[in-house]
Amino acid sequence: MRAVERELTDTGMTAGRHAVMDELRRGGPRTVPQLARLLGLDRQPVQRLVNDATALGLAESAPNPERRRSRLIRLTPKGETTIRGIREAELRRRLSDLTTGDVATALHVLRCLGEEFKDLAQDLPPHPKDRGVPSRWPGSTPTMTICALCSPTSMSRAPRS
Question: Where are the alpha helices (DSSP H) in 2-142?
Answer without folding.
Answer: 2-7, 15-27, 32-39, 43-55, 77-94, 100-123
